[in-house]
Amino acid sequence: MAAPHPESWTRITPEGLYCEPGGFHIDPARPVPRAIISHGHSDHARPDHDAVLATPETLAIMTARLGEGRAGRQQQALPYHQTLVQNGVRVTLVPAGHVLGSAQVVLEWQGSRLVVSGDYKRQPDPTCAPFEPVPCDVFVTEATFALPVFRHPPLRHEVQRLLESVALFPQRAHLVGCYALGKCQRLIAGLREAGWDRPLYLHGAQAAMCRLYESHGIALGELRPVPCPQKRGETVLAGEIVLAPPSAEANPWARRLTDPVTALASGWMRVRQRAKARGVELPLVISDHADWDDLLATCAEVEAPEVWVTHGREEALIHALAARGVRGRALHLIGREEDEGGDPLLAEEEAAA
Questions:
Q1: Of 65-69, 132-136, 156-160, 241-245, where does mean pLDDT reach its minimum?
Q2: Which CATH superfamily is domain 8-149+288-344 in?
Q3: Cα–Cα distance list, 240 to 168, 176, 199, 200 (Å)
Q4: Could you give the count of Cα atoms lying within 13 Å of 250 in the half-sphere of its Cβ?
Q5: What is the pTM of this model?
Q6: Highest CATH level, class, for 155-284
């Protein structure tokens, strides 16, 4: 007897992707009785579910951001590569390479395997476990940067551009907009690897998540809060690097910095018009999502004859997969509006801060 196709035991509900035999949703957009959460960004980790299953790191992130009462009334930690059986459905979490604790959700039922990748990237990142391809019958992929124009350079390349700008303008502060969860810590790690051993200065919105990363063994070096000027009209941190939410340059808070060079770390900075519209002086193409080439390479690696595509450029990716003999399907999940996957110039951390 042939194994049932995953389409026969999952369905899209107003809350999101639902596994019928298991009785749970994956990254639901609304409160549900049972949820599996792929990672801690708030467009995936919503509050007020009755029961939540995730990696220990994701549960810690959810608790830090949502509070004890809203991060799941019951929490169950499932470390990478351990398996739990829920109503006959085998559930395993494997690394997604997106942010600390991010996981692909591997579901197996009656000989059929579905992998829900969540958000993922394939570039090296010392602040989280790397993506692991899992062969499957159906692969669910994001499509945030699923256009050929989006090809992300190595992190070291963009970090070097930042350091060159600091050397060129030592009389100015450098204000780098980056998401508080994942992007900030990855950029810090990249700066340390490039030899920047001076303190890095953080907006308050970034500090708490950096402390959480450090509590999970991720060394980030010396981090300091941005000081207040001692005198009225005085500015601070000329020649230093300040990491803040992407909206910080438009906030009165930034006026304390000495003639700041505004930078923004985002995969969307590949599009010059978007950098220009935002007034970004130093666009840094740094993303925690897979680019066009890595999306196609990943779909090939998992060897799935069918790929379900969600939140992003579904049509372009589905067309490219069809040319490779892979059937594509757009899931059209709702509620994926944050991180780089939604409004490209607004960070979810701004609201969280």
A1: 65-69
A2: Ribonuclease Z/Hydroxyacylglutathione hydrolase-like (3.60.15.10)
A3: 12, 11, 8, 7
A4: 10
A5: 0.93
A6: alpha beta
